[in-house]
Amino acid sequence: MSFELETATHPEQLKRVAIDPVSRVEGHGKVTILLDDDNKVHQVRLHIVEFRGFERFIQGRPYWEVPVMVQRLCGICPVSHHLAASKALDMILGVKLTPTAEKVRRLMHYGQILQSHALHFFHLSSPDLLFGFGSDVAKRNIVGVAAADPETAKKGVLLRKFGQEVIRLTAGKRVHGTGSVPGGVNKSLSADERALLLKDIYQMVAWSREAVHLIRALFEKNLQEYNAFGRFRAQGMGLVRPDGAMDLFHGGLRARDADGKVLFDHFDYGRYWEIIGESVKPWSYMKFPFFKNQGPEEGWYRVGPLVRVSNCDFIPTPFADRERTEFLAFDGGSAAGATLGYHWARMIEMLHAAEAIKDLLHDDDIVGTNLMADGGERQERGVGVIEAPRGTLIHHYRVNEDDQVIRANLIVSTTHNNQAMNESIRQVARQYLDGHQVTEGLLNHIEVAIRAFDPCLSCATHALGQMPLEVSIEDANGTVLDRAARDGNGRFIAGGVAG
Amino acid sequence: MTAPVLVFGWGNPSRGDDALGPLFVERVEALGLPGVECLTDFQLQVEHALDLHGRRLVLFVDASVDAAAPYEVSTVVPARDESFTSHAMSPRSVLQVYCDLEDEEPPPTWQLAIRGEAFELGDGLSPAAAEGLEAALAWFAGWIARGATEPVPG
Question: Residue ranges per domain, chain B?
Answer without folding.
Answer: 5-145
